[in-house]
């Protein structure tokens, strides 16, 4: 019950809205998503940035692995506190370098994470026309009810002799 089952579909030009279940939004016979080119480009750029970030992380992990191997070789040959301090400081520098690269890549383009589901849909012509017809019929029936309630709308009884 925590998840919404219905979506509010609105038309801001005519102030019309109705509720649609998410299953209808995926039905190609009911409506089709309106593709926003800018959104598609932004999504591609985000994917590219994610790939770059992964590459930077892999480079960092490779550097750390190489340093560990070199450190292990040095440890077998020499045991010195100065070398250990240098290794720790280079590890910290490498980590800072990785963080800086990741921040530089992510600061290129700040993209708000959006759902994969499109936000704008075009209702197919026949469904849209049915909605317009139903609204028009409701207005006509409302006007007819008001006319029937108004006694001035009826003709008066003839008062002349036959």
Biggest sheet architecture: 2 strands, antiparallel
Shape: rod-shaped
Number of strands: 4
> Mind telling me the C-alpha Rg?
35 Å
Instruction: Figure out the total of helices.
Output: 4
Major sheet: arrangement of strands: 1-2
Please bin the fraction of helical residues: 55-70%
Decide which structural class fits the backbone.
Answer: mainly alpha
Question: Could you list the spans in which at least 5 consecutive residues all have pLDDT below 50?
Answer: none
Keyphrases for this structure?
162 residues; mainly alpha; two-stranded antiparallel ribbon; 4 helices
Folded structure, characterized:
This protein has 162 residues and is mainly alpha-helical. 61% of the residues lie in helices and 11% in strands. It is built from four helices and four strands; from the N terminus they run ββαβααβα. The chain has helices at residues 22-26, 37-77, 81-108, 125-149, and strands at 6-11, 16-21, 31-33, 121-123. The strands form two sheets. Strands 1-2 form a two-stranded antiparallel sheet. A two-stranded antiparallel ribbon has the order 3-4. Helix 2 (37-77) runs antiparallel to helix 3. The longest helix has 41 residues, at 37-77. The radius of gyration is 35 Å and the shape is rod-shaped. It starts with 5 loop residues before the first strand and ends in a 13-residue tail after the last helix. The relative contact order is 0.11.
Summarize the SSE layout with pairings.
Elements: E1 6-11, E2 16-21, H1 22-26, E3 31-33, H2 37-77, H3 81-108, E4 121-123, H4 125-149
Antiparallel strand pairs: 1-2, 3-4
């Amino acid at each position: 019950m925590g998840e919404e089952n219905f979506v509010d579909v609105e038309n801001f030009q005519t102030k019309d809205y109705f509720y649609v279940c998410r299953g209808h939004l995926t039905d190609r016979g009911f409506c089709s998503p309106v593709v926003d080119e800018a959104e598609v480009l932004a999504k591609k750029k985000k994917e590219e940035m994610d790939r770059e970030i992964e590459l930077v992380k892999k480079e960092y992990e490779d550097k750390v692995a190489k340093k560990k191997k070199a450190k292990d070789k040095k440890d077998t040959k020499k045991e010195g506190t100065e070398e250990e301090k240098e290794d720790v400081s280079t590890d910290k520098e490498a980590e800072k370098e990785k963080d800086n690269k990741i921040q530089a890549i992510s600061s290129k383009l700040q993209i708000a994470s959006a759902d994969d589901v499109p936000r704008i849909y075009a209702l197919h012509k026949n469904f849209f026309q049915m909605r317009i017809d139903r609204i028009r019929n409701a207005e006509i029936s409302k006007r007819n009810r008001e006319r029937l309630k108004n006694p001035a709308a009826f003709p008066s009884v003839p008062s002349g002799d036959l």
